[in-house]
Design goal:
The structure is a homodimer of 679-residue chains. Chain A has 679 residues and is of the alpha/beta class. Chain A is built from 14 helices and 37 strands.
Chain lengths: 679, 679
């Protein structure tokens, strides 16, 4: 079979209908009461008994005949014979006759012959036929459990009506009453009702079982050893989709990941189909794997749909496999999650009996122009940042709306800026940097900066970050960020950070190295500190590397940073200094050229993006020296050869200097940097 | 020690401060990735590796040197020698030189010497040194895994720049980068990031362990046998508070319930204190139990506060017991839950590292006057119902607010009416009939009908009922209700139902028996049906009871319903008929009196509230005949002696006839009642 071309793409609506047509309900199960919270009742529960099951005293006091108190008041109390005591949890050993009362505890059974009770506060011990020793208002510490034929008298200083201070049997819940209806999602309050009815097991919808099969020879489960040289990567989809399934009310079942070998893949898919209500596969983008899935679905089930007009997520499959529903998700994690969220999660929720989620929606303005013209529905992951002073940003109870409904999300004052998050189709992590999704219709090919868009937050409890920072990656900065409440920091490097600050999106940019074009920005410098940089070499410095000279003159393998990095800029300056120095040393007219020196350094042109990655090449034995920070060398137990210090500066977006989170950052920076120069 | 009088009540603020001063943090634990969803990260996680770990092809196509494509286009393609194939999960077995390309799969490692790739769609198989058989665009089904020294040539019909269609090592996440900050509540998207980093175990805040000790001799765990005659009741607080603890992010530990015996209570409290971060007791209201708790807390810990100026919840204790925090909750379930929710849950959430909950707040109008003048903060449980046509009631995504934030709750259009829910202080189930809480300040002693109040929903996912019905309890009605989405029905009886309808609160009232004063209401009758009623007697009717005559003339024990019940009204009419009949029979001038006949029926004056409760007395052997429905007799396998039929009528609030849920009810009633008279 040849590569499927997805020529006839289904519309998103058709895809939803196809998935809805699959039955993924899980049936019924009975769960113990302690596990019932959040589960969905499948049938009505009627009360099988009265609550309370008996006429019950509501207070501590005296059970009596209301008739005997008629006309009584403070001045003219009724005096009744106390003929017994009833504690909670005891059968009354007394029957009252006219003129008699029984001491009674809150919750105790009203004795026969009594039709009301008087709280102890409205009584006094009488002077009647009292026995010696019963001088207190009532005998609290009586542990004998015996009923007293004569316990003195009580003075009742109020009149009561029949039923006063008594909760009659069934007054709380009456036998036969409808207690909870089918479809109830059980709350702690419902558990209270079920407890009162003595129900210790409830029939609930079984969570739909969703089997997850990630395919691809290159996948390794997290925790396993990765061979990057072989192109292995960690399996992102399995645990991520499992978590999504559980968020949607399903039960996730992870199957061992299937390589691209056909028999194995078929075996695992069919095993999952036999055990689950829905099978989700994902992970392999190789055509041969797709072919296996096609063949299995077509032979053992039915393919309802392949290819949907949506981006990301075009290569989606919907069908049946043996007795299970089947959806094939795209392999790229971002695509897989977006398709899962848009098309699959709603069906799982429905099968689980959960209501449509409260979709928290935030309206914001596009932070920049965004072009898109592919004629497919686009599910665009976006991040949010509050513009302006954002004073109310830390107030999670946003302004109440006229509709009377307000679930406070941390973006409620100031203008909300919306920026697309897109690290490319192969990125696994973009969604962790996004807050929600903007659906861009197929007819829209351009979103203009400032245009209003609706963002569906990933879930109602998403808290958009309080602070958005961009720029250089730095260990000191990381410690600062740890002290802030819910910041987001994108380590894009110094130059891209400055560029984004210029576009007005982030709150702050953190730049390394000599100051330069940021002056044009009129950005406000919040703080600065020095950091030591140099060469990172093997522990003990076995190659006896002392500085840049060694890299130029000896046959050593070096690892550089990318040109976006502030360290790279500092390195190039150091190299320029070396050129000067050597020019002076050689004392000839022919100046040593900067470029010339760089070409003598093996690996100078190979730049890595992350501040730690070069050092890790040294650990891996792939390089002798790496550009890096003293801090990194210490952290990774390597040797540090100093080349210089560079200034780290935190620059604030001029519109945001009064924003609460920016002020918080400023104050943390002030404390830490002043204290010891190292936070 | 004598009864504690709570003379110096603490303010609610002081109570919050006292609880906040207790440390209930649970420390750290490491959980596997699959259990990390929703947990709170306790420390920053930095990336320990680059993602991807290698330069990676983003598409299926050809890896090459960008330089070799410069100037190429559709018309003038570059022709390159294909010298190998790299699949995902394979180490490249080839190094490219100028003029060479390698076939490459999505996700595969870029071979050395290549700096860009071209997607297969922009290429054609060349005519160069191609081998026989390689006529397709590319060799999808090549399973040999061998690298081909010569695989023909490829025509590249586009030019690419270095880096095009390649994801460089670390471009997604760079080693050393801050991945997730402390305090992050882990979402499925974060699990994606952690997976990509190969992390299979994360350090999270341990959930605070909360021990729950219910005390009281009268308590029986749900599922156990209840002896109502002894005043036993099911333990409501244990499971309810446990569910509340788990909702708040804690781990609930239920201890066996402690009776009022002092040594046992002390032993269980101290055992809980040794094992938990916080101990919550509740359940016993007897003074001796309180004394034990006082003594234990004072001897083994510290009592910080007793008594809070709040209703319900006055008798709250706050202190320390051994090394644990301790809070004593009131015994009544409603009070216990209100105090738990207001004072304890926020501290558990904080210890669990969860953000303040998004408090969904609904603004509504008081449905009736409410007096309150005790000078304490009142936590008033309330229910909600939408007034007016409520057309948008079924739309759970209410109108977006200008603030940009909108968590759709089912009350978004029409006016929301707020009515207090209060079944008395001993009621265990009121909260299941409530949607949220109105805090009434100590200075407020009167809330006027129509006054605007803010209701804090019990949780953001509370869905206020779509339909509020009140009135007679009826098995047919229960089946109708099962077919509606999220109705609420309060079985208050026919007369109270009519009274409430007159007050304008419910959407519908269901009344039994002959029509009467409801005519004054101008209520709209939605539907009606007949139900059979009579006497319910033991299976097989061993006493040979044929009708009311037997109850009057023989020594039989009867159980009646309360005078609120429509059945009682029908019974009284039947008795009046019997009087007529007997008057005719005796043919004397002295008419038989109605009251006279009733006094001849043993138990006529003892009315039970629930429609099933009288029949259950027959099962229990406590009565020979009970007033009830044919339906009930059948359900409980008893014998039914017909006395008549009565009309059930569903009456709609005239303002609500167009409300969506009322129309839905009307249509379900129309279907069912017309079909077979029995739904």
């Amino acid at each position: 079979m040849n590569r499927k071309e997805f020529r006839d793409l289904a519309s998103p609506t058709e895809a939803r209908e196809a998935i809805n047509s699959l039955s993924i309900e899980g049936g019924v199960e009975r769960v113990p009461l302690e596990d019932a919270r959040g589960r969905v009742l499948i049938a009505r529960l009627d009360a099988e008994l009265d609550v309370p099951g008996f006429d019950r005293a509501s207070l501590d006091g005296y059970a009596l005949n209301a008739r005997d108190t008629f006309g009584s008041d403070e001045a003219d109390p009724a005096e009744l014979d106390v003929v017994g005591t009833v504690h909670a949890g005891e059968e009354p050993g007394v029957v009252l006759e006219s003129g008699q009362a029984a001491e009674i505890s809150t919750g105790a059974v009203m004795p026969d012959g009594a039709d009301a009770m008087v709280p102890v506060e409205r009584t006094d011990v009488g002077s009647g036929t009292g026995e010696a020793g019963t001088t207190g208002r009532h005998d609290e510490n009586d542990e004998s459990g015996e009923d007293h034929e004569s316990n003195g008298t009580v003075l009742v200083r109020t009149s009561v009506a029949p039923g006063d201070n008594v909760m009659f049997a069934g007054a709380d819940v009456a036998a036969g009453e409808r207690a909870l209806g089918p479809g109830t999602r059980i709350t702690p309050r419902d558990i209270g009702l079920l407890s009162a009815l003595g129900i210790d097991e409830v029939p609930v919808r079984r969570k739909p079982r969703v089997g997850i099969v990630s395919t691809g020879d290159e996948l390794v489960r997290p925790g396993g050893d990765l061979e990057s040289a072989r192109g292995e990567i960690y399996d992102v989809n399995s645990y991520t989709i499992a978590a999504g399934v559980e968020d949607a009310g399903g039960e996730a079942v992870l199957y061992p990941h299937a390589g691209d070998e056909q028999d194995e893949m078929e075996r695992i898919l069919r095993e999952a189909a036999a055990e689950c209500d829905l099978v989700l596969s994902s992970g392999s983008t190789s055509a041969s794997a797709v072919d296996v899935i096609y063949r299995v679905i077509e032979e053992q089930g039915e393919l309802l749909l392949h290819g949907v007009s949506v981006k990301p997520g075009k290569p989606m499959l919907v069908g049946r496999l043996d007795s299970s529903a089947y959806v094939g998700l795209p392999g790229y994690p971002v695509s897989a999650m977006m398709v899962f969220r848009t098309f699959v999660a709603p069906s799982i929720r429905e099968a689980a009996g959960l209501p449509e989620p409260e979709s928290a929606t935030v309206t914001g303005r596009m932070a920049r122009d965004e072009r898109y013209g592919e004629g497919r529905l686009r599910l665009m992951p976006v991040g949010l940042v509050t513009d302006g002073d954002g004073n109310s940003n830390s107030d999670s109870n946003g302004g109440g709306a006229d509709s009377g409904v307000d679930a406070g999300v941390g973006v409620s004052a100031g203008d909300t800026l919306v920026y697309p998050v897109d690290k490319g189709s192969g990125a696994t992590t973009s969604l962790a940097e996004a807050d929600g999704v903007v659906e861009v219709g197929p007819e829209t090919d351009y979103l203009e900066r400032g245009e209003s868009v609706d963002v569906q937050l990933f879930s109602p409890d998403v808290r958009p970050p309080t602070l958005l920072g961009v720029g250089e990656d730095d260990p000191t900065l990381n410690r600062v960020l740890d002290r802030l409440d819910n910041p987001r920091y994108l380590s894009v490097g110094s130059r891209p950070g400055l560029r984004r600050l210029r576009e007005g999106i982030p709150d702050v940019a953190v730049v390394a190295g000599p100051s330069g074009r940021e002056q044009e920005l009129e950005a406000t410098e919040l703080s600065s500190w020095e950091r030591d940089w140099g060469l990172i070499v093997r522990a003990g410095n076995p190659d006896e590397i002392d500085g840049l000279d060694d890299l130029v003159d000896r046959d050593l393998q070096f690892v550089n940073r990318t040109s976006d990095s502030g360290l790279r800029t500092s390195l190039e300056r150091a190299l320029a200094d070396l050129v000067e120095e050597r020019g002076a040393e050689t004392e000839t007219g022919a100046k040593t050229d900067h470029h010339d020196l760089a070409t003598h350094i093996n690996g100078f042109d190979v730049g890595l993006r992350a501040h730690e990655s070069p050092a890790r090449r040294v650990i891996a034995g792939e390089a002798d020296a790496a550009l890096g920070l003293r801090d990194t060398a210490e952290r990774l137990s390597l040797e540090y050869v100093p080349l210089g210090t560079q200034t780290m500066r935190v620059l604030a977006n001029p519109d945001r200097v009064e924003k609460a989170s920016v002020r918080e950052l400023e104050s943390v920076l002030a404390e830490g940097v002043v204290d010891d120069g190292r936070l």
